[in-house]
Please model this.
Amino acid sequence: QVQLVDSGGGLVQAGGSLRLSCAASGRALNDSHVGWFRQAPGKEREFVISSDGRGDGAFVRDSVQGRFIISRDNAKNTAYLQMKYLKPEDTAVYYCSVRESTTWRYWGQGTQVTVSS
Model:
């Protein structure tokens, strides 16, 4: 059974940085398509960034382009979301996910990111 555990969220001032972690068990991330999503209060969950792990680059939401980077540590079977120059509009619960075929099938429990102005 695949389990994803999200961590690393917190309260940060605008312009600051955070690194989120997604620790996986039951599946190797090195050949998986891994993504991060977020959901702000009163809004639908939205795609943020993903990487297919084949070195073909990342898929990135326009609003975070140049500020967010996705990476993974295969030895730790953990994916990361490095976030820089955070803005109040980045405030949300962030979830990692692993895709199978065309479906985002596995999800972490989410971690809260709050950016104060």
Remarks:
- Residues 18 and 71 are 14 Å apart (CA to CA).
